[in-house]
Amino acid sequence: MIIWEEPEVVYQKNENFPLKAETFEIIGICMEVHRILGKGLLEIVYKDAIQHELNLKNIKYEREKKYEVEYKGVILPHYFYSDFVINNIIVEIKAQNGIVEEQYSQVLNYIAISKCKVGLLINFGENSLKFKRFIL
C-alpha cells in the first residue's frame, strides 16, 4: 500500500497509520535539511545532514544497514543497504529530478525483506521536498 498524501491528510483519513508520530518527525527533519541546503547536492550530503539532525535530537538510527536476501532457504551472495533505519522505518534518500516507478518497488522490497513496518522515500532533488510513505 502506498500513501501519497501530505502528513495531515493521511492522518485524517487513517488514524491507524503505523508509526505516524515517528514518520512525521523524520519528514520534519528532512524538510529542515531541504530548507537549509536546498536542491542540487549529492545524496551523501543530505544523508550526512540528516544524520547530524538525528544526533542533535538524540534519535537512535542505523545508517547503511546491511540486509541479506533469503531465497528458498538460501542466503543470496548479494544484499542491500538501507540508507537509514529509524524506529522500524526504512528511509531511502534520493536527490534527483523526479522519482521513477522502480524506486517505489525498491522501497516496498526493502520493507518486506527488513520486516520494517513503514518505508519512506525522500527526494531532495526538487524545489520542495518530495516524499512517499509505504506500508506493506
Features:
Lambda Exonuclease, Chain A, 39% helix, 4 helices, 136 residues, alpha+beta
Q: Could you explain how this protein is built, in words?
A:
Strand 4 (89-94), helix 4 (101-114) and strand 5 (118-123) form a beta-alpha-beta unit. By secondary structure, the protein is of the alpha+beta class. Helix 2 (20-37) packs across helix 3. It has a 6-stranded mixed beta sheet, sandwiched between helices. Residues 1-12 have low confidence and may be disordered. The protein starts with a strand and ends with a strand. The longest helix has 18 residues, at 20-37. The protein is globular, with a radius of gyration of 15 Å. It has one domain (18-135): Lambda Exonuclease, Chain A (Alpha-Beta Complex). The protein has 4 helices and 6 strands.
In terms of structural class, how would the helical and strand content be classed?
Answer: alpha+beta
What is the mean predicted local confidence, pLDDT?
87
Distance between the termini: 6 Å
CA-atom Rg in angstroms:
15 Å
Shape: globular
User: Which strand order do you get reading across the main beta sheet?
Assistant: 1-6-5-4-3-2
Discrete helix count: 4
Total tally of structural domains: 1
Give me the CATH architecture, please.
Answer: Alpha-Beta Complex
Helix content: 25-40%
Largest sheet: 6 strands, mixed
The poorly predicted ranges are 1-12
CATH topology: Lambda Exonuclease, Chain A
CATH hierarchy class name? Alpha Beta
Order of helix and strand elements from N to C terminus? EHHHEEEHEE
Number of strands: 6
Oligomeric description of these chains: single chain
Could you tell me the strand content as a percent range? 25-35%
